[in-house]
Write a structure and sequence with these properties.
The complex is a heterodimer. Chain A is globular and about 70 Å long. Chain A has helices at about 35-50, 105-110, 120-125, 130-140, 145-165, 170-210, 240-260, 280-285, 285-310, 325-340, and strands at about 1-10, 15-20, 25-30, 70-75, 80-90, 90-95, 100, 115, 215-220, 270-275, 280, 315, 340-345, 360-365, 365-370. Chain A is of the alpha/beta class. Chain A is built from ten helices and 15 strands. In chain A, helix 5 packs across helix 6 (about 170-210) and helix 6 (about 170-210) packs across helix 9 (about 285-310). Chain B is built from eight helices and seven strands. In chain B, strand 5 (about 140), helix 7 (about 150-160) and strand 6 form a beta-alpha-beta unit. The chains are: A alpha/beta, B alpha/beta. At the A-B interface, helix 5 and helix 6 of A face helix 7 of B. The complex binds zinc ion.
């Protein structure tokens, strides 16, 4: 699977872009603010229907004074696969192979994308929410049915919290939501545990590939429902976990009523990233944190590739900053091994190790011009 | 004097799924037809408004005086009572032909997001009938939907019913999670009924 051609106009600052990327690496060069990341945004939207990062408002995706942005992408995925997206102020419309689509799972099965952004060190050094979201994306990529599991838990949590926020909490009603909540929590925990179990060894391997033998990194899912969970995945079955959750809800009831929110459940899960058996969150340097984030991304890419038999696209935005030359060279070695069609942005080609077969394009003021291969 | 056309458009547009444009189109369509159609429609509306009521026993909607046809049917199994969230769900279960007992319609489920609690659905009516007219019931089947709210409603009812010492069962979750009883096919629904488990 690869992207053969992308046309884009009106998305952020992009103007009349025509991009014919390389089969392996496309290097997107330009000064800051000229539109390199916006080009990645267009590729990301075309391959997942989702923006590169969360938006405050849909309008952010549109160029100044533009009413609509248009992306036309042509993928090659066991035959030509055209994806057309129109972004407007209030929403977007997409057609895949000429058919209107409402959710991304169909496209995800065929295309898929893994993206690295420079401000993602928070994944290592920040709070658990970003890591949970990362793990959920992995679980979704292993099985799009995960969306139903996650939604069921969100629904149960939302209802339980609504009861806890009512002026006089009806304990009988609250107790009636405990069992469906516990069941949904157990299902979500097991799905996350399965995803973490598959991600962990790949993460350790990619961390070694980028950071060298000295970077001894591990990933451990820490399920709020069961602190006995470990590397071996979830030792407990669904019913046992649900019973644990139910008992914990009972013990926390008074506390939850006072605090007006549910304290027990997988919304408090974490994914511990460890280096030398200690939490990287508090110890990692910026460079080390970046290496770990990249290892996470490559691990996701590997896992998706194994599940689907073909690599998704890989987007690396300003990846060279804060990585020393050795790590950068190792990174591109590891990227090359994945076989994924890769898009890399940089201010100068000299910031990157030599990349063979790279197609180089230049971005200036939202316009893209091809350049000679480096 | 208010404009009768505009009043009718306004009233129709308050119906679910009907915006002002559709309402306007409907009214102009009616105006082009024989006026008898409008009289017949108005008559039907008045008839439904005046005669259709909730059955005093099971809360199904019916137009007969007193109990509905299901409650009046002497051949039904008086020991079995199936609790459903809606009239549509009752119809779906009835269509399987597997349910030989009687029904109770809650007209909703618990729904904390909409502020719907036990007082807003027909829970009191259920407890009341089990303590009076329906003392013969030995098993209550809870057939609320498999949604989070439907599950919680079933659990709420099972706790309320516990003191009565009846067998309380829940339909099997053959219906897809988050699914709708009305959308489940007949075979799935009859399986869900026959594989019900005791709570
Ligand atoms: Zn009746």
């Amino acid at each position: 699977m690869h992207l053969e051609h992308l046309s884009c106009d009106g998305l952020r600052n992009l103007v009349e872009v025509e991009l014919s990327p390389g089969r392996r690496v496309t290097l997107i060069v330009g000064d800051n603010g000229e539109g390199k990341t916006n080009l990645l945004e267009a590729i990301h939207l075309a391959s997942s229907l989702r923006p590169l990062k969360q938006l405050e408002r849909q309008r952010e995706l549109l160029g100044e004074g533009r009413e609509r942005g248009v992306i036309r992408a042509r993928f090659e995925a066991d035959g030509p696969l055209p994806v057309d997206i129109v972004v407007e102020g209030h929403g977007k419309r997409a057609t895949v192979a000429g058919k209107a689509v409402r959710d991304a799972s169909e496209l995800w099965r065929k295309v898929g994308v893994v993206a690295f952004l420079p401000d993602e060190n928070a994944l290592v050094r920040g709070g658990p929410e970003l890591r949970r979201r990362m793990l959920d994306r992995v679980a979704f990529s292993l099985d799009p049915g995960f969306a139903v599991v996650a939604r069921r838990f969100d629904e149960a949590l939302e209802r339980r919290n609504a009861l806890l926020k009512s002026p006089r909490v009806d304990v009988e009603q609250l107790a009636s939501y405990d069992a469906p909540y516990a069941a949904a929590a157990a299902t979500l925990t097991l799905a996350r545990a399965a995803a973490a179990h598959r991600l962990a060894p790949r993460f350790a391997a990619e961390a070694r590939a980028i950071g060298g033998a000295a970077l001894d990194a591990a990933l451990r899912y820490q399920a709020a429902l069961d602190d006995a969970s470990g590397d071996a995945g979830m030792a407990r079955g669904h019913d046992e976990l649900a019973a644990l959750a139910l008992a914990a809800l009972g013990r926390a009831r008074e506390h939850d009523i006072r605090r007006r929110t549910t304290s027990v459940g997988p919304h408090h899960d974490d994914v511990a990233l460890l280096t030398d058996d200690r939490r990287a969150r508090f110890l990692a340097s910026q460079g080390e944190a970046r290496a770990l984030v990249l290892a996470l991304k490559l691990a996701q890419l590997r896992l998706v590739t194994e599940v689907r038999g073909q690599a998704p696209l890989l987007l690396l935005d300003d990846v060279a900053g804060e990585l020393d030359r050795t790590r950068a060279a190792r990174l591109f070695g590891a990227v090359d091994e994945t076989g994924a069609q890769t898009f890399v942005t940089a201010t100068h080609t000299s910031a990157l190790p030599p990349l063979h077969d790279a197609v180089v394009v230049h971005v200036r003021d939202g316009r893209v011009t091809p350049r000679e291969a480096a | 004097m208010s404009d009768p056309i505009r009043t009718l458009v306004h009233q129709l547009s308050r119906l679910p799924g009907i915006g002002e444009r559709t309402a306007t189109r409907l009214v102009h369509h009616l105006l082009r037809q024989d006026r008898a159609l409008m009289h017949a429609l108005a008559h039907s509306l008045v008839d439904v408004a005046e005669r259709v009521h909730e059955c005093p026993r099971c809360c199904l909607l019916c137009a007969t005086e007193g109990p509905c046809a299901v409650c009046a049917d002497l051949r039904r199994d008086d020991t079995l009572l199936c609790v459903v969230a809606s009239i549509q769900d009752q119809a779906a279960i009835e269509a399987t032909g597997e349910m030989r007992g009687r029904y109770h319609v809650l007209h909703g489920t618990l729904s904390p997001l909409d502020g719907v609690g036990p007082e807003e659905i027909r829970v009191q009516q259920l407890l009341a009938r089990l303590g009076s007219d329906d003392r013969a019931v030995t098993e209550v089947i809870l057939a609320t939907p498999p949604s989070v709210d439907g599950e919680a409603t079933a659990l709420y009812l099972s706790r309320q019913l516990a003191p009565l010492g009846l067998k309380v069962s829940r339909i099997a979750s053959g219906v897809p999670v988050g699914g709708d009883l009305q959308l489940a096919d007949r075979l799935t629904l009859s399986r869900a009924l026959s594989l019900r488990r005791v709570l």
